[in-house]
Design goal:
It contains 5 helices and no strands. It has 137 residues and is mostly helical.
Length: 137
């Protein structure tokens, strides 16, 4: 028994703080049984699926009508965390399309300026001058 005490003390000296086991020491040599981690989750998902098959649409409708805040919360929870919405239509246009659009806008600006100036001088109406403007595609 006197030989065991120094061995225990020596082993305790080798332990790193926060690590309960020595290097190479296996606390559960047989390991976790196969499927043990997922059993509960799989059973829950299966029960949820069966319940949804029977009551799903009715419950969704009921929650939407009686608890709209919870309904929206569920919708928000299933949306992706990052939603990339591109609202810049110019970013998808080719250089030629951008050039044509810019030319059409300049032409339109010139026409509008002429209409403003002509409104005081009694020139042709805007509808007649608008026919001269090429359409923007």
């Amino acid at each position: 028994m006197s030989d065991v005490q120094p061995a225990i003390e020596k082993a305790q000296e080798k332990r790193v703080v926060g690590r309960p086991f020595l290097p190479g020491q296996i606390p559960n040599p047989k390991g976790r049984p196969k499927g043990a981690r997922n059993k509960l989750g799989e059973a829950f998902i299966a029960a949820l699926h069966d319940d949804f098959q029977e009551h799903g649409e009715k419950v969704i409708r009921q929650v939407r009508e009686e608890k709209p805040d919870q309904y929206l919360k569920v919708i928000a929870s299933i949306l992706p965390k990052e939603l990339n919405v591109n609202t810049n239509a110019l970013g998808e246009m080719s250089d030629d399309e951008l050039t044509a659009t810019l030319a059409a806008l300049r032409n339109l600006a010139t026409t509008v300026d002429a209409q403003i100036v002509g409104a005081g001088a009694g020139q042709a109406s805007g509808a007649e001058q608008a026919e001269d403007v090429s359409p923007v595609h």
